[in-house]
Design a protein that fits this description.
It contains five helices and no strands. It starts with a helix and ends in an 18-residue tail after the last helix. It has about 140 residues and is an all-alpha fold. About 75% of the residues lie in helices and about 0% in strands.
Length: about 140
């Protein structure tokens, strides 16, 4: 397989894996709205932010999947993931929280790589700068 094709396939697969996690998380929050809101409030996060969280996860997930506005979306989701990690997963006395913390730091890193390298050729790239050859 040609290295450019393999690179684009890898970027698409990586975007799909990241997107699936956020899209499913957003929809699961809709299904468990009251419980999610109560959990947020139990750690001091206003429950009124839940609609914004759901929108970011679902819309951001689909944007990453399609490669639309990838740079800004990757930065927003990296920041969101980092903040959520610090707020919800920093109780290192619980092994599961340490695992979740590490997992989310890795996801944040994946979004930073996506920001740095872009979505690849197999994407919509809406709103991205297109370099044109000059004569």
């Amino acid at each position: 397989m040609h290295s450019k094709t393999l690179s684009n396939l890898s970027l698409l697969a990586g975007r799909a894996m990241l997107a699936a996690m956020f899209i499913s998380a957003g929809f699961s929050k809709i299904g468990a709205y009251a419980g999610t809101q109560a959990y947020m409030e139990s750690v001091g996060v206003p429950g009124l932010l839940l609609p914004a969280v759901i929108a970011l996860e679902i819309v951001g997930g689909f944007a990453v999947l399609a490669g639309i506005q990838t740079s800004i979306t990757a930065l927003l989701l990296a920041g969101f993931t980092l903040v959520a990690t610090i707020i919800f997963h920093s109780d290192f006395s619980q092994q599961i929280q340490t695992i979740m913390f590490s997992k989310n730091i890795a996801i944040t890193g994946a979004f930073l790589l996506l920001y740095a390298h872009g979505p690849g050729d197999w994407s919509i790239k809406f709103g991205s700068r297109v370099r044109r050859a000059t004569a």
